[in-house]
Amino acid sequence: MDITGTGKTGPVMSNREEARVQERESTLQGAELFGLSDEKVEGLGQTISRAISWLVSAQNPNGYWVAPLEADATIPSEYLFLHEIIGRPVDPGLRGKIVESILSLQGKEGGWPLFKDGDPDISATVKAYLALKLSGFSPEDPALVRARAWILSRGGAGKVNVFTRIALAVFGQYDWEKVPALPAEMVLLPSWFPFSIYSVSYWSRTVIVPLLFIYHHRPLVKLSPERGISELFDPAHPDGERFLPSRKFFTFRNVFLRLDSLLRFWNRHPVPFLRKRALKAAMEWMVPRLAGEGGLGAIYPAMANSAVALHLSGYGLAHPLMQRVLSSIDDLVLPMGEKVLVQPCVSPIWDTALALGALVEAGLSPDSPTIDRAMEWYRSREVHVAGDWTVRVPDCEPGGWAFQFENEYYPDVDDTAMVLMGMAKIFPYRPDLAARMDDVFRRACRWVVAMQGTDGGWAAFDKDNDMLILNNIPFADHGALLDPSTADLTGRVLELLGGLGYGPDFPPAARAIRYLRREQEKDGSWFGRWGVNYIYGTWSVIAGLKSIGVGMDEPWIIRAMNYLLERQNEDGGWGEDCLSYASSDFSGRGASTPSQTAWALISLLHGGYCDHPSVGKGIRYLVSRMGEDGTWQEELFTGTGFPRVFYLRYHMYRHYFPLWALSLYRNLKKNGMALGHERVAVWKRSPYAPIRNSA
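RE: above sequence
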């Protein structure tokens, strides 16, 4: 039986592979841990054992792992904005801690950056400034004096992005007429229409639909002069220059600017019955997606906009629907000592999949209760709703997992593929578990394969969400309106397909390989959409190509290996600054971090460089940087929300990625094969594998 209906099956193992797997299996004997240290790297065994102990102990009793997910100052600032708009007082103690969190992120130049040690960003700085003014700060406060000087030196608050302009317009600090238009009637457009809500990404869609109510009502929270930020605008250039037309006569930018003028006129003079119908349709779209405890899209901006939309539509603070929305938002507030972290979302599925992946490579016994708890939790989190993805993939049964605890309408390929890879490495030794999870596993496999784009790649949440000209509309000045295929997602699915027993001749895999060859950068790396950046992308692709059976001695693979070798730091680690999204000069360049070092090492190890001096140096870097608590420290941001706009610090990355790299190194040195790959070889013979050998 195959998972796609194509009749393709996985390759048959050679006698040599069979013998090797059987020999390896005979050594397991049910032990909780069966890895041994490599004598050539002092302390490797102890390092791995301590990391395992820490990670196992960090599992929630319900079976999952999760750690804080940190962004920049915009999220706590917007949390204060929301409560001001809907008239919900913030507890003074909580407000004080949020203010302390915002102040702690202010940079040396006076502005607020998008990531730790980054350059100030004018939109983030204006939002933080307004949040502090709303919290009672005087413009003469030293923090605001420094921030104001920096903002004015950069042209004033008129230079901010669209989402900041909307926030300023809500508070009467900016003219609504100068905000790019979003007419409510767009929700009525058919899904095939270029400007429908299904032409943009899931995150844009869930932000835009409730935003239509805000545009329609144009709410105005009147601020007294002392609470406003008029002092931040340059009188000579109050609107900045963000929406000036191109000098060329015909460009998509100019076309969309003219269209924006027409839509603004429409918004001033809507057809009453059509506007009423549009708002009704928008509410009917939104309310089902507010079911449960996850909130709209389970991401803060969409959740906050939905609360404002309900408020403007007459829902009081005591209404059950509003209470549910506000509760989901409050769940993102995480006390951290004297400060409070307001998270953009939570990452339990992702953290759990990666923690399990690291533990499996480290030798965690398949009989461990740790695994049983995780598998049962996965079953409880499976997606059962035919979400927005069905617009492009209408004939596939729902399956898979989302990123968060609950986000039923929006499972994603990345999380689902990573979960399935872990299962494929565990089930061969746990037929009882494989039988219980068989239906869950097969649904998810079929869903992932069905989501492949026509270009051969995979995107995160939708198929063929790639009408790139839409990034030219004025509203999309953040450049992240769409969800096209990416190299890192495509590599992840290839890694899964290889784990299921497919080879490079399997048609979906062959198309994906061609896509990756086209996407490779001139220097040999791959762009990382969801992690910083080219080191992340290269890791994801190389792991996938190795798993699917592409030869690691091919010239294009060697170019990727050379890219990584050339970018190792003197301390033995690897790092990459978030600035690499803006300039290729920073590609693979930056202060060493445990997670990025692990990505580079895993790539090189898969590429056959286990005995290379640079790998040994990188392993020693990780061993020497482990703390007494059995884990690593990492304060720099290595995760990506939207390139150049929004970055993430996954607090869990420093725990499981180094363990994964060290364990992979140990297994290759002792046995010549990744433990995960050995388990996949066993999986091919399992009666529960979705791909069965014809023999």
